[in-house]
Amino acid sequence: xxxxxxxxxxxxxxxxxxxxxxxxxxxxxxxxxxxxxxxxxxxxxxxxxxxxxxxxxxxxxxxxxxxxxxxxxxxxxxxxxxxxxxxxxxxxxxxxxxxxxxxxxxxxxxxxxxxxxxxxxxxxxxxxxxxxxxxxxxxxxxxxxxxxxxxxxxxxxxxxxxxxxxxxxxxxxxxxxxxxxxxxxxxxxxxxxxxxxxxxxxxxxxxxxxxxxxxxxxxxxxxxxxxxxxxxxxxxxxxxxxxxxxxxxxxxxxxxxxxxxxxxxxxxxxxxxxxxxxxxxxxxxxxxxxxxxxxxxxxxxxxxxxxxxxxxxxxxxxxxxxxxxxxxxxxxxxxxxxxxxxxxxxx
Length: 347
Ligand SMILES: NC(=O)C1=CN([C@@H]2O[C@H](COP(=O)(O)OP(=O)(O)OC[C@H]3O[C@@H](n4cnc5c(N)ncnc54)[C@H](OP(=O)(O)O)[C@@H]3O)[C@@H](O)[C@H]2O)C=CC1
Ligand SMILES: O=C(CO)COP(=O)(O)O
Hints:
Layout: E1 3-7, H1 11-15, H2 17-22, E2 26-30, H3 36-45, E3 47-48, E4 53-54, E5 60-62, H4 67-71, E6 76-79, H5 86-93, E7 103-105, E8 110-112, E9 118-120, H6 121-126, E10 136-140, H7 145-149, E11 154-160, H8 163-173, E12 178-183, H9 186-214, H10 222-241, H11 249-262, H12 265-274, H13 278-284, H14 291-308, H15 318-329
Parallel strand pairs: 1-2, 1-6, 2-5, 6-7, 7-10, 11-12
Antiparallel strand pairs: 3-4, 8-9, 10-11
Helix pairs in contact: 9-10, 9-11, 9-12, 9-14, 9-15, 10-11, 14-15
Bound molecules: NADPH dihydro-nicotinamide-adenine-dinucleotide phosphate and 1,3-dihydroxyacetonephosphate.
GO molecular function: glycerol-3-phosphate dehydrogenase [NAD(P)+] activity; NAD binding
GO cellular component, one term: cytosol
Catalytic activity: sn-glycerol 3-phosphate + NADP(+) = dihydroxyacetone phosphate + NADPH + H(+)
């Protein structure tokens, strides 16, 4: 049995208590300053008010001021914040961690630098003085929290620089329904699953466009599939541009699929496709975790910066550029269909 301390009691970290608790480990779930109500309710009856599932009886719950007690004696630390909590995690959590205890984080995203370089969250945390000596690992791949809690079969990738640590983590987390590949290509896994959030917004514009034409609830798949194909194509190019292994597209494409059908990003793409302005759509979704906006903005900015230095061609990313125009320049949805067309002539 190992002692696992999860810091951040959002939906994904809380869903991961299912495989790990069922494997017989001691689970300590610590809330962020924003998770107070979640922890209060869990302490009463194990019910998670955002995940909308009852967690296993026996999990230990901690408010943020009890974090140090929860970290004492832990064998693994799991980071559960979203992109919006990355700096809180860097400032408030990293200084309390021990270099001999592996860390695994669920946060999907990346940070772009002024020169257009893109860095993963594990690399960002490692660049902090308190993170220098820590052993960061991360989870990527298609896995909605509520479906994991329901024991639907899920296949993800654990990535990190040390394969022995990854193997150790895998035997702690893996169950008959939570399947884990391992990869030391951290950039590849992390970028792939970060990018899917930008493109999930792009694909789900088609959901809203069909509803705008034919009424709410009307579904068409041709247009969604066309945007999905273009999205995967652009993600693959972006992986190469960022210096990451393009084979990792397998995790990003799977993640794009699940997010289009079951993720929160579907909500914003659909509203924009129906014709709401960006501000109207955001107002309707107040309180929903929408990382797609952050990732699309950062990715488009990185590509524009690289293009300005002759290292990228904006014409290779028409869907990303259009998503950026919609969310950052207030432009209406007008899918650039002809920009997706290609011509291939064999040898
Ligand atoms: N690796 C994987 O397999 C998967 C990863 N994910 C990713 O996991 C991450 C978390 O997702 P999920 O749990 O669903 O999201 P939630 O919104 O449920 O949880 C986010 C967590 O981050 C905290 N947080 C948000 N903003 C701040 C802040 N400014 N300071 C401190 N803490 C903050 C939240 O507090 P509060 O609850 O109050 O907002 C909460 O603890 C995301 O990056 C998501 O993309 C999602 C699915 C699968
Ligand atoms: O990352 C996810 C599934 O793998 C969930 O995506 P959303 O944040 O859009 O819900």
